[in-house]
Amino acid sequence: MVFTSVLMIEKALTSADVEFVTTLHGDEPVTFHVLLQPRGDQADRLLRAIDDIALGELDEAVRERETPSGDAAKDIGQQALDVSVQALHSAGSQAEGRLVENHPLDALKSLVAEVSADEVIVLTDPHYVEEFFHRDWASRARHRVGVPVLKLFSHSKA
Fold this sequence. Notes:
7 helices; globular
């Protein structure tokens, strides 16, 4: 039996992230369906800047203005997705990926149903403001997708 996971990410997977998600189920084979939403939305920038301030990373908060948007964000997102899918393949997992441009939770719900996913893994940096108000992807997905949702924190800062 092959375990099917939908993996929701916001940036390219690191080697530590790949090892983390590919070993969650021991030796059981896992197929990953990766969703990545390009960064760059104005509201997302504000929330990330607040998170940076909460963590005492003022330089990072100032740099949030420099986050690419539009086609530039989409191109960077596609590169991050391609790198992530290739890294999962290199680790011996089956994987395919999609960019999400609008309504990430709708795309997640549709993909879970389409591939008959066994679980959703949301791999992200901490987003304290969103988490406090339960507005983060994992909290919101738990009420919509009909399968277990596991929230994991990425092993490196974006």
